[in-house]
Design a protein that fits this description.
By secondary structure, this protein is α/β, with parallel strands linked by helices. It has one domain: Aminopeptidase (3-Layer(aba) Sandwich), CATH 3.40.630. The chain has a 7-stranded mixed sheet with strand order 4-1-5-8-6-7-9, with helices on both faces. It has a two-stranded antiparallel sheet with strand order 2-3. It has a two-stranded antiparallel sheet with strand order 10-11. β6, α3 and β7 form a beta-alpha-beta unit. It is globular.
Length: 336
């Protein structure tokens, strides 16, 4: 029973076209020129080489790809002024580097760099959780409040909408996890450029380093006999993808097809050249306040675990009836 998270690899900010060392290009390399267009990068976690969790006869990397493709289809077919870019559209690793001993770490970081190259307004990493048989529910992993604090606010707003829409399908609201990085083996990764403590989860840390707000959506537990009922057919995966699309559409206040409504984009106080198409808007959406529809928030700090400890100790939290239940750790794909 394993899980994922953590990782830091920053090669620098890429341009609008990101080309791999072996000549492969990402799924899409064109950044939109329409300033009224929202750009969302959907990241189906893992791939056939860096596999995710497994349970009940299913594999995470396969299911989340289908969810992502269904979400992309729903967004593009039903809403105006939105462009959806996938980090992968098949089982292949999007950024392979076979010569590297840290290929999965590098691939993970390059996904966020790719999002930055697309001028992404949000990066949503799609996953399924694993744990004990009794663990269940959707959980959102959000950025901490350090360095670019508005990203924490945006993540909670977006995350609340995901929890609401997934809850409408019947998945339990498992709340939020925010965790700080503190790894004595990689002290250079522990702080952002302003000296504040960085995010523990690598996909979030790298996204923030690349100035892209992001969340990780753990839709449910692939190991749960109850949660798997939401993911065990293509029709059910399509319903989950459409729920994801509705959450994203509500966050950006997207208009229905033909309305040509201008979306609401998040802003970044550290990027002086970025101008919001909705001046003065702080990113509020129709989802309401940070706490509305939100499950319990869990903030995790303290000394980083060793690699051996990460393989055996819990790494993500759920809150159920007031007690913390810890799931098994995240797998190598997200490790720092």
């Amino acid at each position: 029973m394993r899980r994922k998270f953590g990782t830091l690899f920053l090669a620098g900010i890429l341009g609008t076209v990101l080309v791999l060392g072996n000549g492969m290009k990402p799924v899409t390399t064109e950044a939109a020129s329409n300033s009224n267009q929202v750009i969302v990068v959907l990241d189906p976690g893992h791939d056939s080489k860096h596999v995710g969790a497994a349970g009940n006869g299913f594999h995470e990397e396969v299911l989340v790809l289908k969810i992502g493709l269904y979400a992309k289809e729903a967004l593009e077919n039903n809403y105006d002024n939105v462009k959806v870019v996938m980090t992968r559209e098949d089982g292949n690793c999007p950024f392979p580097n076979p010569s590297s001993s840290r290929e999965s770490v590098e691939d993970n970081a390059k996904r966020t760099q790719f999002a930055a190259s697309q001028n992404a307004d949000f990066f949503v990493s799609l996953h399924l959780n694993s744990g004990g048989a009794s663990n269940n529910g959707a959980i959102i992993l959000a950025m901490n409040e350090n360095w670019i604090p508005e990203y924490n606010t945006y993540g909670k707003k977006m995350g609340n909408l995901f929890l609401k829409e997934l809850g409408n399908l019947g998945l339990r609201n498992g709340g939020f996890i925010v965790r700080d990085h503190n790894d004595p083996d990689h002290p250079d990764e522990n702080y952002y450029e302003d000296g504040s403590v960085s995010d523990y989860y690598g996909i979030l840390r790298n996204a923030k380093l690349n100035h892209v707000p992001a969340i990780i959506v753990e839709h449910g537990f692939i190991t749960s006999t109850t949660d798997i009922e939401f993911f065990n057919t293509d029709a059910k995966l399509k319903a989950v993808g459409e729920a994801d699309a509705r959450a994203i559409a509500q966050y950006f206040e997207l208009g229905a097809k033909g309305s040509n409504k201008t979306p609401v984009k998040p802003t970044d106080s550290t990027k002086t050249t970025q101008a919001s198409s909705n001046s003065g808007n702080d990113g509020n959406t129709s989802g309401g306040s940070d706490s509305e529809n939100a499950g319990p928030a869990v903030s995790i700090t303290g000394n980083a675990m060793s690699e051996d400890a990460r393989k055996s100790a819990p790494d993500a939290a759920m809150v159920d009836d007031g007690f913390l239940h810890w799931q098994q750790v995240m797998k190598e794909f997200f490790k720092s």
